[in-house]
Design brief:
The structure holds two protein chains of two kinds.
Chain A: H1 12-16, H2 22-41, H3 44-69, H4 77-93, H5 99-121, H6 127-145, H7 148-151, E1 157-158, E2 163-164, E3 167-168, H8 172-193, H9 197-207, H10 209-214, H11 219-245, E4 247-248, H12 255-268, H13 273-300, H14 305-327, H15 331-345
Antiparallel strand pairs in A: 1-4, 2-3
Chain B: H1 2-32, H2 39-56, H3 61-84, H4 92-114, E1 130-132, E2 135-137, H5 139-161, H6 163-173, H7 175-180, H8 185-211, H9 219-231, H10 236-256, H11 258-261, H12 265-280
The chains are: A mainly alpha, B mainly alpha.
Chain lengths: 350, 294
């Protein structure tokens, strides 16, 4: 493949473009066509995996705006996802709202709850924020479990599948386009976010709060906005997940899930959309790999069969997070960039 | 009145256990500036190891106890050496995330090895409660309480009188300065982790004997967060006093708020306290006011 010796921008549009070169556009269009045609030949299980990746990507993308761009750490993402999932399920099943209205509503409700809990969190620094978001996570889940009249309590509740015209999107094949489409839109916004005034303010806050403040960035307000956007993404992802599974129950939104979302972001690389995509794919494929391998491992070591399904994925991904933090703190995205540069410059070092 | 006293006293006793767990957090924070989110999981692992020694390998009580402490200490050493030491000088999120990943690793290991079963330790404290005036106290909790208080005094002495303890405090204050004074910073770190893990192991054994050995033991680590924040992250007396306060508040909430909201309120009440403390006094009751506010 022919590669340029440099990218030269002669116009502002070139400088601002996301896809800088024709080859990028070509790859992008090929990827789009591939993804669009996938349901025609792929088995339903593969589509389920892709849908899970897409939904997970939305929530991780939101977290990326908060952690990667704004530098505020949150361990409450699963809780905000639960808010989105439940509000969407309640709005559609109890109030008969259409899914297409419930989806943005779920995002907005989650964002409001996120801002509510961010109010104490945004006043404080560093890891104290983490504790505040952990508190949010527990309080949200407690509220869900102890309002059985509204949420079905521990048992959970049904979320009817969305309808589009005369089609009911209740199979992986039909849900695929919905999930991927929304993931695409959310990715587009996430990618462009750091190019707006607000996004640049977030980055300024991340790099140096004091300097950002002297430049006229209202720290408290911007942190609240960042939490709100992050929770909005979580709410959209939660709603998508609820209507995909057809059911919401509290055990999908526990603290360890929140830890995974941050872990995915770290494995992929913070502060970049590509990183979030890498991390999500690695996580989901690992889960699939463990699910596929577990029966054979269980057959080899019958003594530990009971725990292998639940424990192995957790163990491996935990170790992966640690290894990435120790050896490649900037994540897979950085490793990928290094690899690309090496390939371009080979056989020279620079 | 009796109900109130009963709640207060049982809260005080539960608070002793919280204090014990919170001590582990404070120790690691004081020496290394890292908040070890996996403290509760270390406690759970120790409880499982103790159960395995005592029941599966049927070792005598004291041998099992010592072996568990030894295992916990080596776990602390391994974690410090291979996971936390590369994090020195890394941003806050990295060090924090390592301990969060440790949660997953430890829980995964326990599920694989012991299959997240519910196990029961043989009784080694008498089960029947003690009567103090008009109120009843469980003897197990009384022992846990006594151990927490005992450990507290030992740590206070250790950090104020012993050379090692002073060195650890110096390390917490400033790495460069303590290096120039001839303190081995890495050894202080390792020591802090070993002590914290041993404390967690003691807590795990006590709690395992009270509640049974299961995965929920690690939840106690989470419930100790509010304690640590209320007491101040770098204060050992703070951990103990806040442990007792949170324990009492929790029991009072169980007694008086649960009937209104329909049960289980004690699970999240400490977190509401946590949010409140973060809003009003983020450095806690006895912590150093180093935290910057906007």
């Amino acid at each position: 493949m022919e590669l340029p010796c440099g990218t030269f921008n002669e116009r502002y549009e070139q400088d601002m473009a996301i896809f800088r070169r024709k080859v990028h556009w070509a790859w992008f269009i090929i990827a789009c066509i591939f993804l669009a045609c996938l349901p025609l030949f792929a088995p339903a299980h593969a589509l389920t995996v892709v849908i899970s990746i897409a939904i997970l990507l939305v929530t991780v993308m939101g977290l990326n705006i908060l952690i990667g761009y704004c530098g505020q750490i949150s361990l409450g993402q699963a809780g905000f996802m639960a808010v989105g999932a439940y509000s969407s399920a309640i709005l559609t099943s109890a109030y008969g709202l259409s899914f297409w209205l419930a989806l943005p509503c779920a995002g907005i409700i989650a964002a409001l709850i996120g801002i509510l809990f961010a109010t104490p969190a945004a006043k404080i620094k560093g890891f104290y924020i983490v504790l505040a978001t952990i508190a949010a996570q527990f309080i949200i889940l407690y509220a869900i479990m102890h309002l059985p009249s509204l949420t079905g309590g521990y048992a959970g509740m049904d979320a009817p599948p969305p309808r589009l015209g005369g089609i009911t999107l209740d199979s992986p094949r039909s849900y695929y386009y919905l999930a991927l489409g929304i993931a695409g839109i959310m990715t587009f916004f996430a990618k462009n976010w750091n190019r707006t005034r607000l996004g640049r303010a977030f980055i300024a806050i991340r790099d140096n709060e004091f300097a950002a403040e002297t430049l006229g960035v209202n720290l408290f307000q911007h942190k609240l906005i960042a939490f709100g956007i992050c929770a909005f993404y979580a709410g959209i992802a939660g709603s998508l997940w609820a209507h995909f599974m057809g059911r919401v129950s509290p055990e999908h939104y526990t603290l360890i899930q929140s830890v995974w979302y941050v872990g995915i972001l770290i494995v992929g690389g913070m502060g970049s959309v590509v990183g979030a995509i890498f991390g999500t794919i690695v996580y989901q494929l690992l889960q699939e790999g463990v699910a596929a391998l577990a029966p054979s491992i269980a057959a080899t070591f019958p003594g530990i069969a009971a725990g292998i399904f639940a424990g192995l994925g957790q163990l491996i991904f935990g170790i992966i997070i640690m290894l990435v933090l120790i050896f490649e703190p900037r994540g897979l995205n950085h490793a990928w960039t290094v690899l690309k540069t090496r390939y371009r410059l080979w056989p020279y070092t620079y | 009145m009796t109900v109130f006293l009963q709640l207060l006293l049982s809260g005080l006793m539960t608070g002793g256990v919280y204090a014990l767990v919170a001590l582990g957090f404070v120790l690691v924070w004081k020496a290394t500036g890292i908040f070890n989110f996996a403290q509760g999981q270390i406690l759970m692992v120790a409880a499982y190891i103790f159960w395995a020694m005592l029941v599966q390998l049927s070792l005598p009580l004291w041998t099992a106890f010592l072996v568990t402490l030894l295992c916990a200490a080596s776990l602390g050493l391994v974690v410090e050496r291979f996971a936390l030491r590369p994090m020195i000088g890394q941003p806050l999120l990295a060090a924090m995330m390592v301990t969060l990943a440790l949660i997953a690793v430890l829980e995964g290991l326990v599920t694989i090895i012991w299959g997240s079963r519910q196990e029961v330790l043989p009784d080694f404290f008498p089960r029947e409660p003690v009567r103090l005036g008009s109120v009843m106290v469980s003897q197990q909790l009384l022992v846990a309480f006594a151990i927490a208080i005992g450990l507290f005094f030992i740590f206070v002495l250790f950090f104020q009188r012993s050379k090692l303890g002073l060195a650890m405090r110096a390390t917490a204050e400033d790495h460069q300065v303590s290096r120039s004074l001839g303190i081995r910073v890495s050894r202080s770190f390792a020591l802090a982790w070993v002590i914290a893990c041993i404390v967690a192991a003691v807590g795990g054994i006590l709690l395992g004997s009270i509640n049974g050995v299961n995965m929920n033991l690690s939840f106690l680590g989470l419930k100790a967060f509010p304690v640590v924040i209320l007491g101040g992250l770098d204060s050992i007396p703070g951990a103990v006093i806040a442990g007792l306060i949170v324990g009492m508040l929790e029991k009072l909430a169980t007694g008086y708020i649960d009937p209104i909201v329909g049960g289980g309120f004690a699970e999240i009440f400490p977190f509401i306290v946590l949010l409140f403390v973060l809003l009003v006094r983020p450095y806690g009751l006895f912590g150093m006011k180093r935290i910057e506010r906007i």
